[in-house]
Amino acid sequence: MAKSVVVTNESESGRNQNFHDNKSGKDMTRAGFVKEIEQGNYDDYHVRMVNGVKTPVSNPDGKEGNNLD
Fold it and tell me: Does residue 39 or residue 66 have the better pLDDT?
């Protein structure tokens, strides 16, 4: 099963910077993906504050196939 959203770019510190939605073909920045999640467009993800920065994370469900990598 292909992941619905994948990370396409990380900073040197490992922070996820850019994302690609495999279903729609849409490319998003971290801020853009956060906005989409907050608008309710990605039910399988939520936003967490990490070191003071809004960060998209997949909802825990025990499956490895839908985690962001």
Answer: 39
